[in-house]
Amino acid sequence: MKSPERIPRRAAIQRKEYISMAKKKPSPKMATEAAVDKKLAAQPENIKTESLAQHTADAAGEKMTTNTGLPVNDDQNSLKGGDRGPSLLEDFILREKITHFDHERIPERVVHARGSGAHGVFKLYKPLAEYTKAGFLNDTENETPVFVRFSTVAGSRGSTDLARDVRGFAVRFYTQEGNFDLVGNNMPVFFIQDAIKFPDLIHAVKPEPDNEIPQAASAHDTFWDFISLTPESAHMIMWAMSDRALPRSYRMMEGFGVHTFRLINAEGKASFVKFHWKPLLGVHSVAWDEAQNISGKDPDFHRRDLWDAIEAGAFAEYELGLQIIPEEDEFKFGFDLLDATKLVPEELVPVQRVGKLTLNRNPDNFFAETEQIAFHLGHIVPGIDFTNDPLLQGRLFSYTDTQLTRLGGPNFQEIPINRPVVPVHNNQRDGFMRQTINRGKTSYGPNALGNNDPQQVKAADGGFTSYQERIEARKVRARSKSFFDHFSQARLFFNSQSEPEKNHITDALSFELGKVKMLAVRERMLGLLMQIDKGLATQVAYNLGMHLPKEIPGNRNIPADGDPAAYQSVQAESTVAVSPVLSMAGTLKDTVKSRKVAILAADGADAASLRIVKDALEAEGAVAEVIAPKMGVITAADGTQIQVDQSFLTAASVLFDAVYVAGGINAAASLEAEANAVHFLNEAFKHCKAIAVSGDAHQLLEATYFSKKLSGHYTEENVLREGVLAGKADKKFSALFIKMIAQHRFWEREKPRLIPA
Ligand code: HDD
């Protein structure tokens, strides 16, 4: 096979110049400039960063010019007839600046508008030649550059990160055979089975069209009206109402390709495949009350978390998992592999972990990279192909189509973040904003004038060929009979949850339906829930002050001439009754890396007890911040000064994973007098977080509403059950606190429901 020409040789040189230029900037440097230098020099280089460098500009140390390169003398004042006179039309500098500004905005994505991106690399553990000929899935030597964009679905570009919503998990691999995009979500199934229903689903969940309310929320009438009439959504609704819809961090959620795809090996043999991403920090979520608070305190919480972690070198890591299903097994599951409302239980087909994705570099420019990346399910490489999943098939149209409006024309693939790392040659030409200068007379094929270039590529040399699936069918507008089991996996998911997770689903449904004004919609939803789990429906009905309905709502997604009976749900049981991996209870809980811990302190704090815990946390990779009544420094009991990171005005317990109260009797007395400090602890307790209090600060603990509810015996066993530790702050204390934080949350605290805050 002809080895692919690597464009970025020039880029590599330019990038080196760019980096060394940045390193050589004139001194003395501002602190921020020095930070930029450091970042540039630290950027991991790969073929994609090299190609991006060709298009990257840095104004540090440069003179200002217009867009035509004219040095600008005065960018502060417009050209006027007299210093108090009218501005002149002649002022091309004013016009250029304002015109560009006037056109800075592009349409936000119609869904997944709110997102955050990061660069990284993918490294394969073992060649997968048995299943696929895809080059990047056979190359264990080289890392494949990637760009990932995480997103929420329903909210606008400026909406909160903490909405109850599905999260997008879109990964682009810049492979030597072109871009491969895995455009997935953090949930393995979807609301609908056929892409033709996507506009209906999205119109229902987006803010209502008359008053554009509510923003980034599914808790309103139109969404639940649609869902209550669409039983195929039942399984996804269980996921969306679970804590999976409230991730603690993009770095702590799973990803799924959702559809069944195909892998094809060099012999042309195909297997079905489901793609998974497994985060190495485990799968963790926040509480709903906490999410709502974070939305006010820091609506950029997830974006900031990802950015800060990467800046601090705590790179986000996920393993790529594959569930491979031989073609012969297509019909052995009792559900249809082409139905995107179904997952393949890991008990039936284990997930093989085949490689690791590491997100190690923040974008240089949000708009240029994160906003302009144009993902598409149809960006595939030889060795990977589609199936007939009707949701997948419709997506194949939608993604390119939407970019034409969003990015303004057919040349969006030339935007630097969208360019593959291999050369592009074809006979497509012109259009708005064309960048490439195509030489030669021919832009058609066949041609004799130009040697018939560019040449098509033989399959044996890497030319893409579609999998030759045999199809013999009538052309029909129809839904397969095998798609009508709407409830078995919704039940499987619910039954697989821990008790606290089940309670959260009940609460979420009660909250969402509590926001629905139309009684008939709530009633229909209860009818739908009854088909998933009677106990769940009964509890939600109780919370809503309603009775279970006598009538079960049917499926209303029926064609005009369709027989309603033929479209109703088929009652079935899942072959697997419980799938423990669907619960987050058993996820990895072995690290505090990048977790945020608030250390409450005040003047008179015991410096030793503060430092011993802070050092121990930082040694394990956690981030500890000192929170005090005011900014600046506090003076410890021994006279040393301790830097304060935030005051109670800007900090809040919801922005941390755990709280530690440093010792010092006087400091504890000051904190006790500070209502915000007591609230900090109460709220952390409410959200089931790890709390540790140094022995002589016990009086602050006693000021909380929860201290009387504790056993008062801070043995390891009690502490790991209750999540509250008090005692002498020493090495053992710190180690126990770290163990508690790694547990993530003490959800059992919610059981007696004793928590106001
Ligand atoms: Fe989609 C964006 C994921 C069904 C139409 N989708 C989009 C993004 C993600 C997904 C992660 C954001 C990509 C980015 O960060 O730029 N979408 C999914 C998943 C689906 C799904 C996992 C079901 C399994 N989507 C789906 C259907 C349709 C679309 C059925 C249309 C028929 N999706 C779009 C879109 C978007 C999009 C309108 C908006 C912006 C964009 O594509 O680039 O084309």
From TrEMBL:
Entry keyword set: Heme, Hydrogen peroxide, Iron, Metal-binding, Oxidoreductase, Peroxidase
GO aspect biological process, one term: response to oxidative stress
Annotated stretches, region: Disordered: 57-82
Gene3D superfamilies assigned: 1.20.1370.20, 3.40.50.880, Catalase core domain (2.40.180.10)
Domain Catalase core span(s) in chain numbering: 65-453
GO molecular function: catalase activity; heme binding; metal ion binding
Protein name: Catalase
Classification via InterPro entries: Catalase, Catalase_AS, Catalase_clade2, Catalase_clade2_helical, Catalase_core, Catalase_haem_BS, Catalase_immune_responsive, Catalase_large_C
Species assigned in the record: Mucilaginibacter conchicola
Catalytic activity reported: 2 H2O2 = O2 + 2 H2O
Binding site for heme: R109, R149, F198, R395, Y399, R406
Enzyme class name: oxidoreductase
Cofactor: heme
